[in-house]
């Protein structure tokens, strides 16, 4: 009787250490600038871990830029069969492009085998994009140009 209890416990323990379905564990996303401006192309770094090894990205991530938020959607296939529950780290670089000035949220969304699996939404904006200031040289050039036009008119009269 004791043998059967131990055998059943060992089978349950073995099955609980394997995963049939996919799971994605996400880290907080980051971007390639500490203080990006509207002139810079932003690249997001999305990292985390899959529940098991063998996941594959079906296509390039889709970037959806809305008002104040960037959603990055991943379509992933899980490995077939029973896989051991061993975290498999991943890191994806996703080109977002240029954004307008303001506070921005970044939300990675994962679909595994066509089914929603994970999403990481922050309660505070992840980063701010600032407007590019006009360099002082342009102000000096403009005022010099206006001065030359005024000087030419005075000389003509």
Question: Which keywords apply here?
Answer:
single chain, 157 residues, alpha+beta, six-stranded mixed sheet, four-stranded antiparallel sheet, 23% helix, rod-shaped
Architecture overview:
The protein has about 160 residues and is of the alpha+beta class. About 25% of the residues lie in helices and about 40% in strands. The protein is built from two helices and twelve strands, in the order H-E-E-E-E-E-E-E-E-E-E-E-E-H. The chain has helices spanning about 1-15, 135-155; strands spanning about 20, 25, 30, 40-50, 55, 60-65, 70-75, 85, 90-95, 100-110, 115-120, 125-130. The strands form three sheets. Strands 5, 6, 7, 10, 11 and 12 form a six-stranded mixed beta sheet that branches. The chain starts with a helix and ends with a helix. The model is unreliable at about 10-20 (pLDDT under 50).
Percent helix range = 10-25%
Q: What's the gyration radius in Å?
A: 27 Å
How many structural domains in the coordinates?
A: 1
Strand content: 35-45%
The biggest beta sheet reads: 6 strands, mixed
